[in-house]
Amino acid sequence: MAPPRKRRVAHENLVFYYTLLGGLPAAVVAFTLLLAHDYTPKVQWTLGLLIVSCWLGFALAVRERVVRPLQTMANLLTALREGDFSTRARGANRDEPLGDVLAEINLLSGTLQEQRLGALEATALLRTVMEEIDVAIFAFDANETLRLVNRAGQELIAQPAERILGRPARDLDLADCLVGEGTRVLSRTFPGGTGRWGMRRTVFREGGLPHSLVVIADLSQPLREEELKAWQRLVRVIGHELNNSLAPIKSIAGSLNTILRRPQKAPDWEDDMRGGLEIIESRAEGLNQFMQSYARLAKLPAPSKQPCEIGPLLRRVIALETSGQVELVDGPALTVHLDAAQLEQVIINLVKNAVEAAFDPGQTAAPPCRVRVAWQKLPGALEITVTDDGPGLANLQNLFVPFFTTKPSGSGIGLVLCRQIAENHHGTLTLENRTDHTGCLARLRLPF
User: Fold this and answer.
1) What gap in Å lies between CA 228 and CA 430, rounded to an integer?
2) Which residues of the chain are modeled with pLDDT < 70?
3) Residue 103 DSSP label
4) CATH (one of 1.25.40.10, 3.30.70.260, 3.30.450.20, 3.30.1050.10) for 133-218
5) Checking CA distances to 59, which of 51, 81, 102, 200 falls within 20 to 30 Å?
6) Helices marked H in 307-339 — which ranges?
7) d(Cα 258, Cα 251) in Å, to the nearest integer?
8) Could you give the CA distance from residue 143 to residue 123 in angstroms, rounded to a whole number?
9) What are the TM regions of this chain, as residue ranges (predicted)?
10) DSSP codes of every residue in 254-297
11) Residue 46 and residue 32: Cα distance in Å, rounded?
C-alpha cells in the first residue's frame, strides 16, 4: 500500500509561519526581560498579551499583504482566461516590482482586447466576403463533417445552413469531393444545378487537426463565353483566309468568263485563259493546304509515352539538318517517358525556325555554327534549349497565335503545334530573346 502523500502547506500559511519565526527571537527576548523585572502578575500578563497581540497582528498583516496582490492577479488572469479583457488592476506603479507585474497584466489585457477586436472584425469581413462571392465554399473537419458553408454553398445544396451544418459529407453527396485529385472538373448534378463545375480542395489546420476546404465554382457560363470567343477567333481567321483566296478566284473567274463570251477573241486569249486557270489552281491549293494545317492542329493525338533516351534522339534530329549550322551540346545520359515521335516534331520545328532566323541569305562563304541545341537535367524535369544568333523576336505577343506567321510561305501553326505537344506532356514551351547576345532562346521543359 502506497504511503499517503504529505499535504502541502499553502503559500499564505508559509508566509505566516516564516513571519512568526522571524519575530520569534524578539518575542523571546521581550518575555525574558519581562520576567527578569519584578513586575506584578497583572502587569506581566498585560504586557505579555500586548507582546503576543503585536507579534500575531504583524504576522497576519504580512500574510494579508502578500496574499491580497496574489489574489488580485489571480482574478485578473481568470478574467483573461474567460475572455473578459476590460478588468484592470489598480496601483500598477512602475516604481516597485509588484506594480510592474500589475502594469504588465494591464498591458496584456489591453493587447488581448485589441487582438480580439481585430479578430472579430476580420472574421466579420471574412464572412461578408464569403457570403458575397459566387463560388460555393465548404469546410469539413477530420471526420468529414461540415463545419462551415457560405450562401453559394447553401444554394448549391438547396438547403439552409441550419440543416446541413454538422452533417457528414456523404449525406450531402459531397464525399467524392474529399477524395481524388485536389483540382479537377466535375460534370454532375447538384440539388442547386446541373453542369460542369470546377472543384479545388485544400487542407488547413484548426486546433491541430486537419480540415478540408472545398471550393466549387460553376464553369458553365465562363466556358460558354470562352467557347464563343474561340469560335469568333476561328471564324475571323478562316474567314480572312477564305477571303484572301476566294476574292482573287472570283475576280479571275469573272475575267475568264468575259473572255469566253466575247464574239471576237484576242489572239492571245488562250494564254490569258491558261494563266488565269493557273492562278485559280494555285489559290485553291493554298486554301487546301490551309485547311489541312488546321485539321492537323485540331486532330493532334494524345502522346504515347515510352522510355526514350534523349541524347540519341536529339542526335538523330540534328542529323536531318544539312546546313551545317547546328551544334549539339552534349548533356547527361537521360531516359524519359515521352512520345518520341511528337518530341522529334517539336525539335525539328524549333531547329528549323532557329536555322531560318540565323541564316543570312547574302552570305556566300560557309556560315559558322550559329544554332546550338542542348539538354540538361533539372529537379524533376528535362530541359531542352535551342538558341540562335539571329536578330531575335520582334513580336512576342503573337508567337502562339494560330495561323499567325511572318514567313512568306509559313502556315502559322508550327509553334502552336509544338506548345500543344509540350502541354500534352504536362510540360511548357517558351520563347524569349537572349540577354547575353542577339538571337532567340527556345526552352522546352518536360517532367520526368
Assistant:
1) 27
2) 1-7, 11, 91-93, 223, 226-228, 230-231, 233-242, 244-245, 283, 286-287, 289-300, 322-324, 359-369, 394-414
3) H
4) 3.30.450.20
5) 102
6) 310-319
7) 11
8) 24
9) 15-37, 43-62
10) HHHHHHHH-SS--TTHHHHHHHHHHHHHHHHHHHHHHHHHHHHH
11) 15
Radius of gyration of the chain (CA): 45
All cell numbers assigned to 273: 485563259
Strands 381-388 and 335-338: unpaired
pLDDT at 219: 81
Parallel, antiparallel, or unpaired: how do β-strands 306-309 and 335-338 relate?
antiparallel
Measure the CA–CA gap between 391 and 406, rounded to whole angstroms.
14
Q: How does DSSP classify residue 444?
A: E
User: What is the 3-class SS of 91-125, one letter each residue?
Assistant: CCCCCCHHHHHHHHHHHHHHHHHHHHHHHHHHHHH
Residue 195 is classified by DSSP as E
Which bin fits 191, alpha (ψ -120 to 50), beta or left (φ > 0)?
alpha
Phi, psi torsion values for 254, nearest 5 degrees: -65, -40
Q: Do residues 306 and 276 make contact, with C-beta atoms less than 8 angstroms apart? A: no
Task: Enumerate the H helices of 310-413 as residue ranges.
Answer: 310-319, 340-358
Q: What is the pLDDT of residue 383?
A: 92
277: Cα within 13 Å, side-chain hemisphere: 8
**Collapsed DSSP state (helix, strand, coil) of residue 423:** helix
Residues 418 and 346 sit within 8 Å (Cβ to Cβ): yes
Q: Which CATH superfamily is domain 306-447 in?
A: Histidine kinase-like ATPase, C-terminal domain (3.30.565.10)
| Grid cell at residue 205 | 489546420
Cell numbers that stand for 235 in this block: 471564324
Instruction: Report the pLDDT value the prediction gives residue 363, as an integer from 0 to 100.
Output: 47
Residues ≥6 apart with Cβ < 8 Å to 304: 339
Residue at grid coordinates 531542352: 384
Contact criterion met (CB below 8 Å) for 255 and 273: no
Q: How far apart are CA 448 and CA 383, in angstroms?
A: 10
- State the Cα–Cα distance between residues 69 and 91, nearest whole angstrom: 10
Express each pLDDT in 335-392 by its tens digit: 888 888 888 888 888 888 888 777 655 444 445 558 889 999 988 889 999 988 887 7
Q: Are 440 and 392 in contact (CB under 8 A)?
A: yes
- Measure CA 427 to chain center: 18
